[in-house]
Amino acid sequence: MTTSKEDIEQYVDKNCTWCVEPITKFKDELSATEYQISGLCQKCQDEVFDEPEDSIVMQPRSSFRDRETVISTWPDNGQEPEVLNRIPIPDELILCDFCNAEIDNDPVPVLNNSYALCEGCYARQTNGSNINSTP
Length: 135
Description:
Elements: H1 5-9, H2 29-38, H3 42-49, E1 56-59, E2 67-72, E3 83-89, E4 108-111, E5 115-116, H4 119-125
Antiparallel strand pairs: 1-4, 2-3, 4-5
């Protein structure tokens, strides 16, 4: 549903605070209300608020090389954190980011370019698909 011409007229000659493009239309009343709060046009609201669908890509084990865990302080005074230690992660050790199970597969399924998945978590994310049948 788009807003009516009368609804849009109140935004004529106004620009988005993010992309600086002129305001032209909103898909619904909620989006028009959001514009009053944030100043974002419909396109920018969609980019900011619409969550992308989950996507799983298969990454080779080699893409998990040269990783480390960083231990640092988090000062209360607004200063930058101080790195106390860097612990290398063995290249062959890949853990599921949901259940910490060790992952032996190659390639490794990765959810939303961030979360490595074991076979069980992969099956839950894909409604029962087998990790070994993925192209």
